[in-house]
Amino acid sequence: MLNLELKEQLKEFLYDYYTKYGLEDEELSTQLFIQERLKHENLAWLFPHEKPVFLKRILWYKVSTKEEIIKALTDINWWFKCVIVNPNSKFEEFTYFLDYTEEHGDECDGMVLYISTKEVNHFHDVVVPRLQQLYSTLEIVR
After folding, report:
1. What is the mean pLDDT of each successive set of 10 residues along the chain, which is 142 residues long?
2. Residue 57's closest CA among 48, 73, 47, 45?
3. Which residues contact 132 (CB under 8 A, 6 or more apart)?
4. Contact, 119 vs 111, CB < 8 A?
C-alpha cells in the first residue's frame, strides 16, 4: 500500500511523462522537422471535441513527399492533423480536415483516420471509390 503523498507524486510524474503541451516538449528531431516545414500558426479550433484550456498555439506545417507524410504519420502520429485548403482560401475554409488518432471503444480499437469535409457528397462519390481501389481492406464508418 502506497501512502497518499507517494501516489500523488507518481500520478503527477506519469501525467507529465505522457502529456505534451508544446513543440518544445518533443524530441529535437521532431522540433526541427516541424519548424523546417512550418506554414501557419493560429488558435483556430477545428476539432469536434472541446478546446483544451492549456492550448498555447496550433502549428500547421506542410509535408510534400511520401516520405514526409509517412514520417508525420509514424513519428508524430499524435500531432498529425491535416487541413487541405485551396490555394487562395482562408485556412478555416478547408476542403478536408484529417485527424489521425488512437481510439478505443465499441466501434474501433486502434489508430483511426477521421475525415471531415464540407462537401460530403463529393467525398463519398469521388474520393471513397478511389481509396477503396488503393486499399482493399479500407473500412469506412459513418
Report:
1. 70 59 81 92 80 81 89 73 83 82 79 82 86 80 70
2. 45
3. 138
4. no
